[in-house]
Design a protein that fits this description.
367 residues, single chain, 7 strands, alpha+beta
């Protein structure tokens, strides 16, 4: 404790003693005056100046003694009920400032404890737990970003070096250039998805809700993958109810459909099948994207919406593990819901439920 802190501590204790002294002096003086007046009136006792002076001296020393006792008792009470829990919170906060997010404070359970401190401790522990999870995600995110950036850069570097070989045939030159172009595209997609996810998680993208036909949007997004499904000879089945209207941000929802369609085609073997279904119930529009791909194990399913997680490493060169993280964030922002049913080796079905606009409401809006 520094000299200035000790001086402030002494002033604080002196101030407390003076407060108790004045309080005790006022209370005891009033009581003594009332007692003396009552004794004089009821018993006819005549009080002399000598008697009053003696009583005043005794009262003064009693005030000093009682003030000291009350100050000591109050100091002990404050130390137990205030200073100790405050010091524990301060110590824990200092450890957290130094980067130790595992710190937790035990609640107080003694008789003299104030429940308000337990409320503060509970909030502190919850904050520490949230910060610990955030720090873990940040560390993993940096590690994964570094790894994901190194992979396409290494590919580009290797093929660029091979392109410099003398006497390289035209066929090989085109092949190596193609690999460099693919790696650069993957790197650009990775950076683009990182920026999108960062904006979504930090709420820097604000949804602009409009009313539109969901079936039309699904058809437009699916047709963007026509070249890919024809290349793999994948059978496409669609069942889309008409006039299903939703009110949300169409650009953000296109991220959802594009990622779901891309994954379904990517994980479906050549000659397989992918189906798109759009139906409605009383309140919701229900979109189902089903494929006959490799399926998802229970362990993978628990992490599939985590950033950079790729359950099927055989397709790792075709993605960056951010697609489903983007999907989940958009679904959460839009107030919708997504569920997955999958069997390993048989395929997966992603189901998105989003609130639809009743047909009558759409007609009133158009009028």
């Amino acid at each position: 404790m520094s000299r200035s802190e000790r001086f402030r501590r002494v002033l604080f204790e002196l101030n407390r003693y003076i407060v108790f002294f004045l309080l005790m002096g006022f209370v005891i003086t009033c009581c003594m005056m009332l007692f003396i007046r009552t004794m004089s009136d009821t018993m006819g006792i005549e009080l002399t100046a000598e008697n009053i002076s003696e009583a005043a001296k005794i009262t003064f020393w009693n005030v000093i003694l009682l003030s000291a006792i009350c100050t000591a008792i109050d100091g002990l009470r404050r130390k137990i009920t205030v200073d100790r829990p405050v010091q524990r919170i301060v110590d824990a906060a200092q450890r957290m400032m130094q980067g130790d997010f595992s710190v937790r404070i035990r609640p107080q359970h003694n008789v003299m404890s104030d429940d308000k401190f337990n409320e503060i401790i509970a909030c502190f522990n919850q904050m520490a737990e949230e910060l610990s999870g955030t720090e873990t995600l940040r560390t993993d995110f940096i590690a994964n970003v570094s790894h994901e950036l190194k992979t396409p850069l290494a590919v580009m570097k290797n093929y660029a070096t091979m392109l410099q070989a003398p006497g390289l045939s035209e066929e090989k030159r085109v092949e190596y250039a193609k690999h460099i172009a693919e790696a650069s595209k993957r790197l650009a997609d990775l950076i683009s998805n990182i920026l999108k996810l960062n904006k979504l998680e930090n709420q820097q993208i604000f949804p602009e809700a409009t009313t539109y036909d969901l079936g039309e949007q699904l058809c437009e997004c699916l047709l963007n993958f026509e070249e890919l499904w024809e290349k793999k000879d994948i059978q496409i089945e669609t069942e889309l109810e008409e006039n299903i209207i939703v009110r949300t941000d169409p650009e953000m929802m296109s991220l959802v459909w594009n990622n779901l369609f891309s994954n379904a085609i990517k994980f479906t073997e050549p000659g397989g099948r992918m189906s798109l279904r759009l139906i409605k119930d009383a309140e919701y529009a229900i979109v189902q994207v089903e494929d006959t791909g490799c399926g998802i194990s229970k362990e993978v399913g628990q992490h599939m919406f985590d950033k950079f997680y790729q359950g099927d490493t055989s397709h790792a060169m075709q993605g960056n593990g951010l697609g489903l993280a983007l999907v989940k964030r958009v679904i959460d922002i839009s107030g919708s819901d997504i569920a997955v049913e999958s069997q390993l080796g048989k395929g997966s079905t992603f189901t998105v439920r989003m609130r639809r606009v009743p047909h009558g409401v759409v007609e009133e809006a158009s009028v």
